[in-house]
From TrEMBL:
Residues 36-240 form the Aminoglycoside phosphotransferase domain. It comes from Solitalea longa. PANTHER family: AMINOGLYCOSIDE PHOSPHOTRANSFERASE DOMAIN-CONTAINING PROTEIN, AMINOGLYCOSIDE PHOSPHOTRANSFERASE DOMAIN-CONTAINING PROTEIN-RELATED. Keywords: Transferase. This is Aminoglycoside phosphotransferase. Coiled coil: none annotated.
Length: 331
């Protein structure tokens, strides 16, 4: 009997351990364990006292060229002393591995392990450092470009809403709200002063879930899977939007931390008045984008939580609420 085709799989951690021992010259005591099965799959690799993270990209999620561009960016940041999880080459100086999974060839990269742990809610002082870390990334990526996605308003808002439409009823109040908000954002961004919006390479996923903080309160940034090109203010907007969530929309909690984060950022790189004005709007744009990603990856990731009810609760509880705080559109 032939093996039935699959759309996704979890690769065996013990067999990955043997594979990595051979490719990277790791010891026979190396252990491997899956720690996250999400958009991609991440394994913690432990060799004696040294840890690594091995990312296995989902089938056809990224091209070899897109991964090469991510690697190039990370090597630049590492060389310039920015605290990031960086790629590690194998014995033959290759950064990208190909693994023949049941669903087809999947690509993998070994990264240095970000020391420390994730902390959901941290002090103003650490938010200040987070601002400095982001600014140091932007200082090196401003006016640069990768051969990867351009995060234009069309990509963030138009393509994402089309994906959302596959799961959210066209005649629902929530879809009517999203269409109205999309029109508002597209119009507002079109009329913005683009000369005052810095362009460059963005991470687009900088928040607590992609930081590890060690005992000395030093931050290491990781997971550049969504890096691409766009307004640098998108990164600030996403971080601030997530801060509202992390602090449960309590202004007395999130506002001092936002101010500390922005002070940290501006101690390295200055923002324009137009960038600061657009931050709430750009945060909503990224909300659109990631809802689109969840819908796009329904078959091999989000089906365990995504439904029409989930989308309605997300829109009413997060997007509409965020728009209302800043009096954007008819929230």
């Amino acid at each position: 009997m032939s093996v039935f085709p699959v759309s996704s799989s979890n690769l065996s951690a013990p067999h990955l351990s043997l594979f990595l021992q051979e490719k990277y010259g790791l010891s026979m005591n190396t252990q491997c364990r899956i720690i996250k099965a999400g958009i991609n799959h991440t394994y913690r690799v432990t060799d004696q006292s040294t840890q690594y993270a091995f990312r296995v990209y989902s089938l056809n999620w990224r091209t070899i060229k897109e991964i090469e561009e991510e690697i190039s960016l990370l090597n630049l940041l590492k060389e310039e002393g920015v605290s990031v999880s960086y790629p590690i080459a194998d014995k033959d100086s290759n950064f990208i591995q190909t693994l023949n999974a049941p669903e087809g060839p999947r690509l993998g990269v070994l990264f240095s392990y970000a020391n420390g742990q994730k902390i959901h809610s941290y002090s103003k002082e650490i938010h200040f450092q987070a601002g400095q870390l982001m600014a140091n990334v932007h200082r090196l990526t401003v006016n640069k470009k990768l051969e990867r996605v351009n995060y234009s308003p069309a990509v963030l808002l138009e393509e994402s809403l089309k994906k959302l439409g596959e799961f959210l009823s066209a005649d629902s109040q929530e879809m009517a709200f999203m269409k109205s908000l999309q029109h508002y954002l597209l119009t507002s961004l079109s009329s913005a002063n683009h000369n005052d919006l810095r362009q460059g390479i963005v991470h687009l996923d900088i928040w607590f879930d992609n930081f590890n903080i060690n005992a000395e309160n030093e931050i290491t940034l990781f997971d550049f899977d969504f890096c691409g090109n766009g307004w640098l203010a998108l990164d600030l907007a996403y971080y601030i939007m997530q801060l509202h969530n992390m602090e449960r929309y309590e202004e007395k909690n999130y506002q001092p931390k936002i101010e500390s984060f922005l002070k940290g950022y501006e101690s390295i790189v200055k923002t324009s008045e137009e960038e600061r004005r657009l931050l709430p709007m750009l945060g909503l744009c990224v909300y659109f984008f990631y809802l689109g990603v969840q819908c796009q990856r329904y078959d091999n990731w989000s089906n365990s939580f995504l439904s029409e009810d989930y989308l309605k609760r997300f829109i009413n509880g997060l997007i509409k609420r965020y728009a209302g705080i800043y009096n954007l559109a008819e929230a």
